[in-house]
TrEMBL record:
Subcellular locations according to the entry: Cell membrane
Superkingdom assignment: Bacteria
Any one GO CC term of the record: plasma membrane
Keywords associated with the record: Cell membrane, Membrane, Transmembrane, Transmembrane helix, Transport
Membrane topology, as annotated: Multi-pass membrane protein
Pfam families found in the cross-reference section: GntP_permease
Family matches, as InterPro entries: Glcn_transporter
Family recorded in the similarity comment: Belongs to the GntP permease family.
Organism placement in taxonomy: Bacteria, Bacillati, Actinomycetota, Actinomycetes, Bifidobacteriales
Protein name per Swiss-Prot or TrEMBL: Gluconate permease
MF term (GO), any: gluconate transmembrane transporter activity
Amino acid sequence: MNLIAAAIIGIAVIVLLIAACKVHPFLSLLAGSFVMAVCAGVPFDKAFDSFTSGVGGTISNVGLLIAFGSIIGTILFKSGGADTIVDTIMAKTPLQRLPWAMALIAFIVGIPMFFEVGVVILIPVVLFAARRSKSPVVLLGIPALAGLSTLHAFVPPHPGPLTAIGALNANLGITLALGLIVAIPTVIISGPLFGRLAAKWVPIAAPENEAEAEAPKSAENRPSFGTALSVILLPVVLMLAASIVDLTGQNTTAWGRVIAFLGTPLVALLITTVFAMVALGYMQKFSRDAVNGMVGQSFGSVAGIILIVAAGGGFKQTLVDSGIGDVIANSITESAMNPLIAGWLVAVLIRLATGSATVATVTASGIMVPLAAGMSPTHLALLVLAIGAGSVFFSHLNDAGFWLVKEYFGMSVGQTLKTWSLMETILSVVGLGCVMLLSLVL
């Protein structure tokens, strides 16, 4: 009971600091880990030992992957590759199918790009398309947001899935493959299908000036559609190939070992980074300094994310080393609750309290570590996805994404709750449902 109380107090400190005191999640996780360790009986002069160990392990395991993912996304954006993908799909799409096109664009662009970057790229396109087609902005906006948010929750190299994979020792390739399978029906239901209903509730037009000011740029000097798409799909192909080799037992052969090496997450993203620098940088007549500038800019955008994820790893390690995780896992086991549902529920509660999908993922994955010990590789991957689904449940006033969407679309708080917040809830529940269905057949 003392250990459970320590965990509750530690999580409460994190929630209080983030939600009420508006302290940065990195500092909140640091303080919560210290309080939890002391309450669990760890001497105060050793209370940070587990935290610093977890931070180092997380940065070495996840931080580098996030950095590479940011480089790829930044080069894709700065080179015009993302614009090429968007414009190519829109040019071939009838106006009545624009909601589905927006979902497809967001799905493709959202694989390597973080949610905030994807929003910056796609929302001006949504506003422009809504004005051109005289459609409610929500009709096109919800599918785009659903695509970005779903990939953010389920698919590496986004920070949440990567953190959970590292904490639970899940296979990245299997998680990627299952994440894409879960993402497709989740995007369809929470995007174009729900978007039609949301547009009836909030039938507002796109803001007048932003669409014109942010209209798609000239296609001059942009990379081709095939080149831009190849940068996005290369790491997916490499990691999936490595998983297939591993699952078929071919990883002992010479060619199998090569494919397994190339599909290692760090190697796959390194190869893709170099490919992006060459194909989207040097081959598009960007100078060496310009390409290096893109790489440098990418680090600034993810420094905060890496620190939050690292602090989450420290919190997780404190849970593990103090024995709190084992106690919570035993309690879940004794209650006979399905581990996938338990992981989703823990993530939901932390998401509602803190407003951060990343904090919800790293905390929930840390709590679920003891339960993951005896799970098969496929069910470990499904646990990662269940936690990811819970981490995006009902975005509301304590989530920065809520205000980002509200301001871009010019909605009131009530309208944002009826559209964006409800879409996130549907996404979370449908995602969990897909995970549970897969758990029955795998």
